[in-house]
User: What shape does this take?
Amino acid sequence: MEIRCELCPHRCGALRSDEKPGGICRSPLLPRTARAAPHYGEEPCIAGKNGTGAVFFTGCNLRCVFCQNVDISRGEGGVSVTVPQLRDMLLRLQDQGVDSIDLVTGAHYIPVIAEALSGIRLGIPVVWNSSGYESVESLRMLEGLVQVYMPDFKYFDPQAAKRYSAAEDYPSVAAAAIKEMFRQVGPYVLDDNGLIRSGVLIRHLILPGRTEDAMNVIDFAADEFPPGSVLFSLMSQYTPMPGLERFPELNARVTAEENRALIHYMQVRGLDGFWQELDAATVEMIPDWDLTGVEKT
Assistant: This one.
């Protein structure tokens, strides 16, 4: 099977087949996966005590210059899996006792992932962990199949989105996508153990020197949704990666002052959620892309 792809907001029209990569995401139609294993680096309401069953897909429709998963986000690595193989992978993770299933960066594989999810019953929430750069039309394929949406909202400033992720329309696209996610799953629900059962958790990675943009993202979450209806995660784990010579402003760490100011602003705006301390800014939580848990073809 092959298509002229218009799945994501780029609508690049590239030819993608089950085996042949194409498009900005540099991916085939069948999902390439690099790892499927319990993961403990997500927010407490996602990972719980037993971890989340994280499936890391390769490829991405953004070109973030600071990407920590660059070894797989450019379409390299991983192996392609069929719908039955993906279903088996998810069921194996459930059998390991994880507290949720975490589908990481799967926007360019939505039709296949939706088909896999529609054929099984999982007794734990399915989390859609994404960049936020997704079309509303594609997200509707996941309605009723995903219980928790965990999108990034990377930028409010279009020029920053253009410079750092090659997607000037990112702010408007992400805003529309997050609104659609909320329409599907509604206000967040936690169980007695503090684990999320359904809802939206918006993430924002603080970039050095971009406090105002981060405040605008916080304002979006606070103004767009009813009080107490979405969770927000403010992440200070930004770590400069190799190759930032053209972006010297990003070749730095988030300062303690920036972090404190944004935590305070998030609290002032009344958002429920999470924030990180600066010691989270390490590369130690980046998984090994060693095909752990992946059914090889």
